Amino acid sequence: MDLIKDIDIVSPAEVQACDFKTTEDQNTGKEKKVYIESYGCQMNFSDSEIVASIMKENGYDTTSDLKKADVIFLNTCSIREKAEQTVRNRLNHFNGLKRNKPGMTIGILGCMAERLKEKLLEEEKIVDLVVGPDAYRDLPNLVATAEEGLKAINTFLSREETYGDISPVRLNSNGVSAFISIMRGCDNMCSFCVVPFTRGRERSRDPESILAEARDLWGKGYKEVTLLGQNVDSYKWSPEENNKARLNKKEGEVTEVITFANLLEHVAQVNPLLRVRFSTSHPKDITDEVLHTIKKYDNICKYIHLPVQSGNSRVLELMNRTYDRGWYLDRVKAIRKILGEECGISSDMIAGFCSETVDEHQDTLSLMELVKYDFSYMFYYSERPGTLAAKKYADDIPLETKKRRLAEIIEKQSQISHERNRLDLGKEQIILIEGTSKKSANELRGRNSANKVVIVPGEGLKLGDYVRVKITECSPATLFGEVLEINPSTI
Ligand code: SAH
Ligand code: SF4
Ligand code: F3S
Q1: What is residue 18's predicted lDDT score, i.e. its pLDDT?
Q2: Which of 144, 343, 361, 402 is at a distance of 20 to 30 A from 379, taking alpha carbons?
Q3: Is the C-beta atom of 384 inside 6 A of ligand 1?
């Protein structure tokens, strides 16, 4: 099962989980340099941009060169054991560097900092500073404290913090696509998941600041925004609840309750040529109203990441997902009815959850056949300390079995992805160019509305162009197209 050993395919977006660095060196004349490396989901990557902004205000430019760094931050993920192991290896490496540069501060941020709190600072002594996801405003103080050789830790979880007023410094940006955090935390208690413990209670960000950020990005030439939250469908902002009720309404100020469907609509109206995506939708919360809003606007992408986790109702109950197989399939039916066959649907799947039988595993495979996911992020279960599953259920599926089941899920997904891609052959689609092809410098890479990667010949095209293409070939993971029209009037 060597095949599986290195497969830690990651979710919406634990994309590029390996190494995300501040490759862009900012030289705005600040005295000191901070190096940031991030792991985990898109929300964590988005947090690193907030951290960079806070540090910039306090005299630090980002650097991609470890040797130049006065401060190293590792923004970490706890979702699976492997994610934490990777971080530990990096910390050992950084401590090696520190021997030659004792003045350097090494800080751990994010979910692993929140989960382990003092442990890395006091017991293991491999970091100088520990800061949880809701305490980044305190970073400049804490760095100063660490520089004095004192204990620097803040893992306070807030009920209000959304960093709504902080304008993120875009790191590793292609200048075309950007993420906008619309909420933080998670109030669901999926039994396998560490996120509610590392990110705290769910809270929604002020819609005015979200819209201001979207408008600002459009003004700077960005063409696509992705609205981020662990469970975007439960976005809810009301002036009263959020303690923002003002007696005198300012013009343009949002005073009514805003749901996710409302927010999506407002963002879509920023400009008809600004593509809007979002992640992650929860099967229990996604409403028909949201689906109709997606349909109503050409610039809201026809793609939904709807993690199922398992195709078996008993396992879903143990997972505390609060929906069953029937409910999930009904939601997929609604997507197909309202948004049609071409709407992209993807999923997250966990193989070998506690007590999962062979038949229950087969239910996951059969559900995949029914839904026909375009792609999926697939994992085997990794027990996380402190979660409900760790407390209540034995992690009793042998590793080899978990890996075998995962391999079957991956194999099934690959067949279905290929099948779905073949349906696109001969079709015309609009893609947004966002980078070069990994395989050839003469080709460019874009994505269609359904979030599939399409490779096209690069001649005459540039980043940020919308291109009408005809799909000519496909592999399980990629579509290939020919260019029909550059920057058509509608997308
Ligand atoms: N909020 C999102 C998921 C965030 S975590 C949602 O509810 O769908 C991303 C994915 O990691 C999850 O969907 C799940 O498939 C996977 N995951 C979370 N905890 C895990 C664990 N303990 N072991 C294996 N995979 C896990
Ligand atoms: Fe974790 Fe469930 Fe919340 Fe997703 S919805 S972050 S899986 S607890
Ligand atoms: Fe994200 Fe990992 Fe934390 S997936 S929320 S960085 S545990």
Answers
A1: 39
A2: 343
A3: yes
Q: Which pLDDT tens digit goes with each residue over 261-278?
A: 999 999 999 999 999 999
Closest CA to 476 of 376, 379, 397, 347: 376
- What is the best residue among 278, 350, 373, 383 to mutate for testing ligand 1's pocket, by most ligand atoms within 8 Å of CB? 350
Tell me the CATH number at 56: 3.40.50.12160
Query: Residue 63 belongs to what domain range?
Result: 9-154
Quote the ligand 3 centre to 480 CA distance (angstroms). Answer: 33
- In this prediction, residue 4 carries a pLDDT of 32
**Are 88 and 188 part of one and the same domain?**
no
The CATH number of residue 341's host domain is 3.80.30.20
User: 93 lies in a domain?
Assistant: yes
Q: Are residues 265 and 309 in the same domain?
A: yes
Task: Give the number of other Cβ atoms within 10 Å of residue 236's Cβ.
Answer: 17
Regarding the beta carbon of 198 and ligand 3, being less than 6 Å apart is answered yes
What pLDDT sits at residue 242?
Answer: 66
Domain membership flag for residue 371: yes
Which residue ranges of the chain lie beneath pLDDT 70?
Answer: 1-24, 241-255
- Same domain, yes or no: 337 and 413: yes
Mutate to test the pocket of ligand 2, among 44, 79, 193, 316 (most ligand atoms within 8 A of CB): 193
Per DSSP, helices labelled H in 99-138 are 110-116
Ligand nearest to the CA of 364: 1
Three-class secondary structure of residue 315 per DSSP:
helix
- Is there a domain that residue 360 lies in? yes
Q: Are 377 and 17 in contact (CB under 8 A)?
A: no
**What pTM was computed for the model?**
0.93
Q: Quick check: CB of 412 below 6 Å from ligand 1?
A: no
**Which atom of ligand 1 sits closest to the CA of residue 309?**
15
| 481, 470 Cβ separation under 8 angstroms | yes
Atom of ligand 1 nearest to the CA of 186: 1
Give CA–CA dist 105/144, Å, rounded: 10
Assess contact for 192 and 384: CB atoms under 8 A.
yes
Pocket probe for ligand 2: among 190, 281, 318, 328, the residue whose CB has the most ligand atoms within 8 Å is: 190
